[in-house]
Specification:
Layout: E1 9-14, H1 22-38, E2 42-47, H2 49-52, H3 59-76, E3 84-87, H4 93-104, H5 107-111, H6 114-120, H7 129-143, E4 149-151, H8 157-174, E5 183-185, H9 220-228, H10 248-261, H11 265-272, H12 277-303, H13 306-335
Parallel strand pairs: 1-2, 2-3, 4-5
Helix pairs in contact: 3-12, 4-7, 4-13, 7-8, 9-12, 10-11, 10-12
Bound molecules: adenosine monophosphate (AMP) and tryptophan.
Length: 340
């Protein structure tokens, strides 16, 4: 398929289902800002509220988390003029194309998704049907924009492969060249930020220990304290990045430093080789406070004016629908729906 047929366009989404943390920032949002500022692609960023309700959400909290996520995007540098910033439910074509993809994707494909297996656990019978079908809606999020590139953290790789499978099956079944085979963009030192309490576990909003993560709303003191208490080992920092392979806690802190500073892990070691963690953590805490505390302050300021956030999202939805309405119409037409 000729890549050139499609406008270079980036789409990505985050679930408004709890507190944003450093993993979301480094693995996703910071990259979204870089892609926006590169100016090489149109950029569309989404609060995927329809995905969030695949597990129970308290309605008032969901509304608040959606606004807070929007504030997090803007405070991190997403400019609602340069990028299209939306919540998924205000652009109905996502769900409409999602239904078509429910009919393209196969049960077997969904059953193989590791996130489904993790989230449904042993009691899959009690999981919502939406949780099972979730990757088809995610494919629709992306393909209803004909997006060519999707920046995400490592944990979304399998869902993006499925998105390509859905696009390819649709194109094949209907004998068209309509949906692009979207490229995942999984790059940088922080595609998988680990827990501060256990370097073998992903930093996650679902971890009950708040000390395991830095929340994007944490103030300077809290950030510094969590880094001081982060788990490490007694050895000094090595001089080569390879030597961190067997030291997950040490590697995590070096990767976080690298991603925050915008340098490679090896460059961090060039500066800090031989340091003990007591010392390195002071430098890391300073850097993290410097980069993250202003974002928390700006988020709080934006959250004081929820009506302004809602206005931005309403405007984003209007702009988004200029793209999604024609693409959905063409998809319906290909499938054989009457449009009168
Ligand atoms: P979620 O919070 O699961 O909706 O994830 C939103 C985005 O953040 C996705 O692109 C994830 O891949 C990314 N992400 C979530 N947790 C991490 C993590 N610990 N490290 C890197 N990226 C992450
Ligand atoms: N599934 C993603 C997550 O849990 C969120 C998401 C939904 C998404 N739709 C998307 C990410 C489309 C990228 C593109 O993190």
């Amino acid at each position: 398929m000729a890549e050139t047929k499609f406008t270079p366009r980036v789409f990505s989404g985050i679930q408004p289902s709890g507190d944003l943390h450093l993993g979301n920032y480094l693995g996703a949002i910071k990259r979204f800002v870089e892609m926006q500022d590169a100016g090489t692609h149109e950029t569309v960023y989404c609060m995927v509220d329809l995905h969030a309700i695949t597990v129970w959400q308290d309605p008032a909290k969901l509304r608040r988390s959606t606004r807070e996520l929007c504030a997090g995007f803007i405070a991190s540098g997403i400019d609602p003029e340069k990028s299209i910033l939306i919540n998924q439910s205000q652009v109905p074509e996502h769900a409409q194309l999602g239904w078509v993809f429910n009919c393209v994707a196969r049960m077997g494909w969904m059953g193989r998704m590791t996130q489904w297996k993790d989230k449904a656990g042993k009691n899959a019978e009690a999981a919502s049907l939406g949780l099972f079908a979730y990757p088809a809606l995610m494919a629709a999020d992306i393909l209803v924009y004909h997006a060519t590139h999707v920046p995400v953290g490592e944990d979304q790789k399998q869902h993006l492969e499925l998105t390509r499978d859905i696009a390819a099956k649709f194109n094949h079944d209907f004998g068209v060249d309509f949906f692009p085979l979207t490229e995942p963009v999984i790059e940088g030192a922080a595609t998988r930020v680990m827990s501060l309490r256990d370097g073998t576990k992903k930093m996650s909003k679902s971890d009950p220990a708040d000390a395991s993560r830095i929340n994007m709303t944490d103030d300077a003191d809290t950030i510094a304290k969590k880094i001081r208490k982060a788990k490490t080992d007694p050895d000094p920092l090595p001089d080569a990045a390879d030597a961190l392979e067997a030291r997950p806690d040490a590697r995590n802190l070096v990767n976080i430093y690298a991603a925050l500073a915008g340098i490679t892990p090896q460059a961090v070691l060039d500066q800090h080789a031989g340091s003990l963690f007591g010392h390195f953590k002071v430098a890391l805490a300073d850097l993290a406070v410097d980069k993250m505390a202003p974002i928390a302050g700006e988020m709080a300021r934006l959250m004081d004016d929820p009506a302004e956030i809602d206005r931005i999202l309403g405007r984003g939805a209007e702009r988004a629908r200029e793209i999604t309405v024609p693409i959905l119409e063409q998809a319906y037409d290909i499938v054989g729906m009457i449009r009168s």
